[in-house]
Amino acid sequence: MTSATYSHSHFNERPNLYQKMIEEIEDYSIISLDTQGIIQNWNRGAERIKGYSEPEIVGKHFSIFYFSDDLAIDLPNQLIREAEKNGKAVHEGWRKRKDGAQFWGSITITALHDEKNRVIGYSKVTRDLTEKKYAEDELKRSEERYHQMIAEVQDYAIILLSPDGIIENWNMGAEKIKGYSSKEVIGKKFELFYTPEDRAGSLPEKLLNQARIEGKALQEGWRVRKDGSRFWGTIVITALHGKDGNIIGFTKVTRDLTQKKLTEDKINAYNAELKIQNSELEQFAYIASHDLQEPLRKIRTFVELIQENYADEDFVKRYFGKLDASAQRMSDLIKSLLNYSRLTKDCKLHNESLNSEKGPIDLNEVLAEVKQDLELLISEKKAVFISDHLPLISGNRMQIAQLVSNLISNSLKFSRVQPVIKIRSAVIEIGKILNAPETLLYKSYFQIMFEDNGIGFEQQYDKVIFSLFQRLHGKQEYPGTGIGLALCKKIVENHQGFITAESQPGSGARFNVYFPENCP
After folding, report:
1. What three-state secondary structure class fits 236?
2. C-alpha span between 340 and 468 (Å, rounded)
3. What tens digit of pLDDT does each residue of 370-413 get?
4. Whole-angstrom Cα distance, residue 232 to residue 222?
5. Bridge partners (DSSP) listed for residue 158
6. β-sheet bridge partners, residue 107
7. Is the dihedral of CA 424, 426, 428, 432 positive or negative?
8. For residue 130, which of 104, 316, 324, 392 is within the disulfide window of CB 3.0 to 4.6 Å?
9. Alpha carbon of 136 to those of 61, 103, 143, 151: distances in Å?
10. Residue 494 and residue 402: Cα distance in Å, rounded?
11. How many CB atoms sit inside 10 A of residue 443's CB?
12. Which residues have CB under 8 Å from 236's CB, separation 6+?
């Protein structure tokens, strides 16, 4: 055989080889249809996937593989027409085997043309993707269950954020905790839930940046609900990454721990109160061993002297006077201690013991009453008062009157020239109060300033003067029990406020009293 003869023979055999290849493919069903959709040819893959042998199926319409729902909409003929018009038709759906079982078929019908470009039939290739379909459906169901689980969790607010912090998803827990429905909040920035102070400090942006860099950010703090109320939230922001490693968004999980926070605050307040009471007990021990002993020692000494000089009438009268003064001194000390202990027992205004006595107090009326009570001393000292119009506060009127009386009495007492007492008021935000206690609960406070031109004191003693029986001046020159300012401090604390003092020797003193502006 010549080379030319061999080449021609090999060329003639290739169509048969190609036909053989098609017939023996088992992973794909490859069949040929005439222009009406009648099956003309059938391979092993078709027999394996659909269950029919070639003699059973050739000559029948390919619609035999379709279920009644697809037949009702004439799907097989729609696919034929689409292939005729566009050259091919692609479709996925449930198909029927010989035994009636279903399989998920991915099909491509391709139009076959003659040399004049006329359609002379179709090839139909089908692949069985049932396992892939079941896997995809299971994955979809799993994802749906997961999303439903997230959506219906109520104890945690779980939200999805864009890379810029825009809210993209919202669950029932978020609605329960924060008060917004999904329609109200999706598309807005998550900084919506932060306090004005946190927004001013760029806290939301800082947390997102931390999550970008470290993968997640954790934080606890006060958050704002839709109605403006606050709750204590613990939050975890986690960065979400795409396949390329770039951040595609964030999850933000928030838990409402308000009750836990309030309980912890109560415990801390209780511990702080215990610390204060222990300090007061130490002061009481000092009083019992020193201040109360002093007049007792004098009384015993005076009694002994009177007994020894009983016959000397002038001597006895003189020492009976001293004896009476010591007894009066001891009586004053005991009364002051009783007043202080009553205030300590009453505790804070929100306790039931004081709620019944609590109400609105016009400080202008209180000032007028105190000036009337101290009328003789004011007249004797020729004191001058300069006062602003003072605010209305909430509290216990008797205690507030005692507070004002003690402060004005101090200004009158500790003066060497004509007393000038100025009483001014202002409203001040908590962030602008210097050295404010960390336990303050309110956003703004009334500042009532009692200022005089008295003898003053060294600023280093600004805390000491509010302790029990801590005197900066001698009893002979400036009489008193040394408990007045301690009472003032306790009264102000009972009203959820605080008191400070400013002074320089010879330049007078100023006492700053702070009350909550909106105390319920």
Report:
1. strand
2. 9
3. 998 889 889 999 999 999 999 999 988 888 888 998 899 889 98
4. 5
5. 253
6. 91, 126
7. negative
8. 104
9. 31, 14, 10, 22
10. 13
11. 13
12. 216, 217, 218, 252, 253
Q: How distant, in Å, are the alpha carbons of 44, 118, 134 from that of 15?
A: 18, 22, 38
CA gap 461, 475 in Å, rounded: 18
Name the token pair of 374. Answer: 């101290």
Q: Which two tokens stand for residue 351?
A: 């306790």
Where helices occur in 116-157 by DSSP H, the ranges are: 130-152
Burial class (CB in 10 A: 0-12, 13-18, 19+), 380: exposed
At residue 120's C-alpha, the angle toward residues 119 and 121, to 5°, is 100
Residue indicated by tokens 């049932």? 130
Taking the C-alpha atoms of residue 483 and residue 286, their distance in angstroms, rounded to an integer, is 13
Q: What stretches of 271-414 adopt beta strand conformation (E)? A: 358-362, 384-387, 392-396
- Distance, CA of 494 to CA of 511 (rounded, Å): 17
Decide if 469 contacts 482 (C-beta within 8 A). yes
pLDDT tens per residue, range 307-340: 888 888 888 888 888 888 778 767 766 766 666 5
For 214, the token pair is 């470290």
Going by their DSSP bridges, the two strands 88-96 and 102-113 should be labelled as antiparallel
**Residue 87 half-sphere exposure toward CB, CA atoms < 13 A:** 1
Tens-place pLDDT, residues 148-199: 666 666 788 888 899 999 999 888 888 888 999 989 999 999 999 999 999 9
Distance between CA atoms of residues 423 and 446, nearest Å: 13
DSSP conformation class of 179: -
Q: At what angle do helices 258-286 and 313-346 cross, to 10 degrees?
A: 170
Bridge partners (DSSP) listed for residue 447:
426, 514
End-to-end CA distance of the chain: 115
Task: Identify the CA nearest to 472 among candidates 380, 418, 417, 410.
Answer: 410
The answer to whether 462 and 503 are in contact (CB under 8 A) is yes
Measuring CA to CA, how many Å separate 512 from each of 367, 412, 435, 449? 16, 17, 12, 5
497 phi and psi, to 5 degrees?
-125, -160
Supply the DSSP symbol for 186.
T
Are the C-beta atoms of 241 and 160 separated by less than 8 Å?
Answer: no
Q: How far is CA 420 from the centre of its chain?
A: 49
**Strand 247-256, strand 230-241: pairing:** antiparallel
Instruction: Indicate the residue type of 517.
Output: E
The rounded distance, in Å, linking the Cα atoms of 363 and 306 is 51
Number of helices (H), then strands (E), in the chain: 18, 17
CB atoms within 10 A of CB 366: 19
Token readout for 517 is 């502006």
pLDDT digits (tens, 9 = 90+) for 480-501: 456 778 888 888 988 889 999 9
State pTM to two decimals: 0.44
Nearest to 279 by CA among 62, 131, 467: 467
Contacts of 428 by beta carbon, 8 Å cutoff, 6+ apart: 444, 445, 447, 514
pLDDT greater than 80 at residue 517: yes
